[in-house]
Amino acid sequence: MENFKTEDILKGLLPHWKKLTIVALVAIVVGIFISSPMVIKPLYKSYSVVYPVNLSPSSEESATEQLLQWFNSEEVKKAVCDKFDLYKHYDLDTLDPRHQTWFNLKFKERVSINATLYESVEISVKDQDPYMAKKITQGIIDATNELIMSVRKQRLAEYIVNNQNELKISTQKVDSLKFMINNIRREYNIVDFQYQSKYISKELAKSPNLSESNAKTAEGLKVHRTELERLRDVISSHIGTYNELNQNVAKYHLDYANKISFTNVVSKPTLPDSKCYPIRSLVVAIITLSSLLIACIVLVYLNIKNQKVD
Fold first, then answer.
1. For the segment 107-134, what is each residue's pLDDT rounded down to a tens digit?
2. What is the C-alpha to C-alpha distance for residues 143 and 286, in angstroms, rounded to an integer?
3. pLDDT, tens digit, for every residue of 199-245?
4. Distant-in-sequence, close-in-space partners of 232: CB < 8 Å, separation ≥ 6
5. What is the Rg, in whole angstroms, of the alpha carbon atoms belonging to the chain?
6. Which pTM was predicted?
């Protein structure tokens, strides 16, 4: 088996430099043509950088990781697709049984959402129309805010209903306790048991014989005073709970009515003024080098074949 040195290969190719030059020139022309807008539609990239804000802690994820989950959700993708009619924009046939798969591939190819080193989130969108690229970038931010707000409102609505149910229960308990206290007071003519206890004690100190009314009150205080004190404390506790629940309901209603943002925009979506794809110089370089390599291999092969024939 023969061993070929680089020097021998170069000597074999040197006589064919004109052919190689022609191949290189043709490859350059072909590369320029292929990378032109007539063959490859240029893409423009818009990007935006946002920080998470107003997000409640969930599991062990950081706020940035939570925001990434929201950005990459199917709901956001669908909302952006519907808003900008991306099936039509991407020339996808909705009658194709696999149209959702093709759309997902196209969306993944055109849209990139990643965390940065500084715990922010960068959204970049490529599109043939620079204005559409900017609109989709802003649309992703808006759709994410709306989705988080929608889920937040669902949770708040649940909190409001639950607290209102507890308010009803607490009100019923207080009313029941008040009814019990009022029955005792009516039966024994007790208005203020603390004051009346002192009054009855003074009356007894003056004379052991009490009037019929005071005697009945004294009997009621003797039998039911402890129970009245306990019921009063229980009512006080329930009223405190009621007030706390009422404050929660008011707070949840306020949060439900307000509209807040969950993204702090550091860099607004940009309007690109130059294409990001294809990189013409790279395409031309790859085609030219590939063509020269193939041409060199062919020439070396022919030289070897000729030498064997000779």
1. 999 999 999 888 899 999 999 999 999 9
2. 40
3. 556 555 555 655 555 565 566 565 566 666 677 778 788 788 888 88
4. 181
5. 42
6. 0.70
Across 28-52, b (16+ Cβ under 10 Å) vs e yields eeebeeebeeeeeebbbbbbbbbbb
State the Cα–Cα distance between residues 304 and 83, nearest whole angstrom: 64
Mean pLDDT of the chain: 81
What pLDDT does 1 receive? 40
Measured distance CA(310)–CA(281) in Å, rounded: 43
Q: What is the DSSP track for the chain?
A: -----HHHHHHHHGGGHHHHHHHHHHHHHHHHHHTSTTTS--EEEEEEEEEE-SPPP-TT--HHHHHHHHHTSHHHHHHHHHHHTHHHHTT--TTSTTHHHHHHHHHHHHEEEEE-TTS-EEEEEEESSHHHHHHHHHHHHHHHHHHHHHHHHHHHHHHHHHHHHHHHHHHHHHHHHHHHHHHHHHHHT-S-HHHHHHHHHHHHHH-S---HHHHHHHHHHHHHHHHHHHHHHHHHHHHHHHHHHHHHHHHHHHHHH----SEEEEEPPP---SEEE--HHHHHHHHHHHHHHHHHHHHHHHHHHHHHH-
- In DSSP terms, 124 is beta-bridged to 47, 112
Closest by CA to 96, choosing from 83, 109, 106, 84, is 106
Greatest mean pLDDT range, 37-46, 114-123, 184-193, 213-222? 114-123
Q: Which of 24, 63, 85 minimizes the C-alpha distance to 294? A: 24
Q: Residue 309: CB partners within 8 Å, gap ≥ 6?
A: none
